[in-house]
Amino acid sequence: MKSLLITVFPLAFVLSGCKVNEGEAYEKDKAPEERTEYVGTDGLAQAQKDKLYTMDKELKDKCNDAKISYAVAKSNNNEKEAQAQKAIMANTCKDK
After folding, report:
1. Could you give the CA distance from residue 45 to residue 26 in angstroms, rounded to a whole number?
2. Cβ atoms within 10 Å, residue 48
3. What are the backbone angles phi and psi of residue 38, rounded to the nearest 5°?
4. Which domain, by its residues, includes 23?
5. Other residues' Cβ atoms within 10 Å of the Cβ of residue 49
6. Neighbour-count burial of 68, counting CB atoms closer than 10 A to its CB (0-12 exposed, 13-18 middle, 19+ buried)
7. d(CA 54, CA 32)
8. Tell me: the pLDDT tens digits for 69-85?
9. Is the Cβ–Cβ distance between 40 and 25 less than 8 Å?
10. What residues are paired with 38 via a beta bridge?
11. Under a CB-based contact definition with an 8 Å cutoff, are residues 38 and 26 in contact?
12. pTM for the whole thing?
């Protein structure tokens, strides 16, 4: 029994120390699209949030670009391009 305690306590101490040396869950000082390091379950949760943020931002950017291109096409009487931009807007803009 004594030898078991001598073996178990140091092992438990070493394993509990692993959590302490883990570091931050994610790089809090960086913008979501610039983060590359995620650690542990908190980091994994933040990675998912960052991925959703990045995807949403890309869609918003594509939507805005399509709206501008649509306006330019309409002002130039280019109906073919206007229709193409309208299709992109239908796929990317949330406020259709």
Report:
1. 10
2. 11
3. -135, 135
4. 2-92
5. 12
6. exposed
7. 7
8. 999 999 999 999 999 99
9. yes
10. 26
11. yes
12. 0.65
